[in-house]
Amino acid sequence: MPNDDSLMSRFDQEGLRRFSARDAVVAVLFCMVLLVLFAGASVRHAGEEMRPGVGRTVMLAVGNPAGWIADQLPLKALANDATHWLSPDVNLGSAGGGFTTIATTGTGAAATGVGVVTPDAFDPAALGQAAPRPRPLRRMLVTGDSMSQPLDQDLAQRLSPKGIKVDRDPHLGTGISTTFLVDWSKEAAFQVRQDHPDAVVMFIGANDDFPMPGPDGRQVACCGVNWAAIYANRARAMMNIYRQAGAARVYWLTLPAPRAPVRQMIARVVNAAITVAAEPWASQIHVLDTVPIFTPGFVYRDAMTVGGQATIVRLPDGIHLNDAGSNLAADAVLAAVRRDFTIG
Predict the structure, then answer these.
(1) What are the distances in angstroms from CA 194 to CA 102, 139, 167, 169, 242?
(2) Is the pLDDT of residue 38 over 70?
(3) What CA–CA distance (Å, rounded) separates 76 from 84?
(4) Does residue 197 sit in helix, strand or coil?
(5) Among 154, 199, 183, 149, which Cα is nearest to 169's?
(6) Is the alpha carbon torsion for 314, 316, 317, 322 positive or negative?
(7) Is the pTM of this model over 0.90?
(8) Which of 45, 56, 126, 186 is at 20 to 30 A from 144, Cα to Cα?
């Protein structure tokens, strides 16, 4: 094995430069200066991410001044530019494409197949913000299938004496899933043209279990996710008509659990579809959930405690609300309406 003298002699013969220990120290110090200049902020960030302790204290003692020096110089950006070729990844920034194409006009969303979220989708109260100042209620439309009776009468009796016109327009035996008696998309448009209501109260779904045509034209039977999607799209179209481009407010009641198990399955799907349908306009479409009021846990009951007394709230058919139940539903509707309107 060659000794140190022979190695030195070889360096001398081959013209190679020898470095002293002092040179090594200078080189290390030079690298440390470069590290401070180019990556001082990274050292500071690493210290901030450490858990409290001696190590974090030492790291920040070095990192804070090093980070301050690095912040004053443009060397970090120069280093990034100089070494960018080492990781030639696909450009994932904002230079075209991505989120920059998703404008509120909806053009970018159409290209990506993702619907645009607008401010109408947010209820200010859910964001902790003050709700808009209530405005006077002048006209209300109460409509739907047989579920809307006698709710329409209760609301009319309470509001008419206050000078508010209540249009009662139930269509018995109808449903969103069938157009045999009434096509609700056409009916909604007609009602709005005729009445121009400030508020619309909708209670429907007791007859909904009919097959509906899907996107390919084939009939989709109740009550899976495909049927629910079609139902939600139909309900959303109605909601969009009733809200009148944001000028009106819609109060759509869900179905309380019916007595028959087969009807319970249908009601669950209808309620889920209604909730999904209203999502784009949470500030204008209020889904009033009757389930916690009448059938908590979606468990059917004929009677409940009202004013400290056991009170029957359902009709013998196990589907509809009776007068007492309708009064409770009217209370829920008016509580929601008062958040948007002044009604005296």
Answers:
(1) 37, 12, 10, 12, 12
(2) no
(3) 12
(4) coil
(5) 149
(6) negative
(7) no
(8) 126
